[in-house]
Amino acid sequence: MSGSNAMDWGGPIIVFDAMCVLCSANAQFVLRHDRTARFRLASMQGEVGTALYRRCGIDPENPETMIIVDGQSVLRDSDAVLAIYAGLGWPWKALSIVRLVPRFIRDPLYRLIARNRYRIFGRRESCWLPSPEQARRIL
Q1: Does the keyword Transmembrane helix apply (predicted)?
Q2: What CATH number does the domain located at 10-124 have?
């Protein structure tokens, strides 16, 4: 991570799979709807994303979760997804109601989808690339 740490990057970092159609669509959704530019994004295929996964004890070659890293704090699985929508503000924040579903129910469902993401949603031929306007938010 070239001598920097996650706190230097100005906000929570979403690490996602840029080869996954669903994950890339979610990244694009965040970039479109994050009006305050709160989140930064890093693909697990890139240097920053790989380093963050390793720091969290996740194999970047076979992750079954996306993560949000904010300084020393790390969210994963369904908590990460819910934090994204909460961080986007209204109306997306309303999805936070899903937190009422216990994690022992949410997380296995999340992991089932994550493990089968390519089969269900497809795999891109190459990593998704942001538009020039979005590129400043990608690490």
Answers
A1: yes
A2: 3.40.30
40-84 pLDDT tens trace: 999 998 999 999 999 999 988 887 889 999 988 999 999 999 999
Structure tokens given for 124: 């891109």
For residue 80, give the amino acid letter. Answer: A
φ, ψ dihedrals at 90, nearest 5°: -75, 145
State pTM to two decimals.
0.84
CB atoms within 10 A of CB 124: 14
Mean pLDDT over 10-28 rounds to 89
d(CA 136, CA 131): 9
Place of tokens 């994004």: 41
CA distance 104 to 67: 18
Question: In terms of residues, how long is the chain?
Answer: 139
Whether residue 98 contacts residue 106, with contact meaning beta carbons closer than 8 Å, is answered with: yes
- For the chain, how are helix, strand and coil distributed in percent, rounded to 5? 50, 15, 40
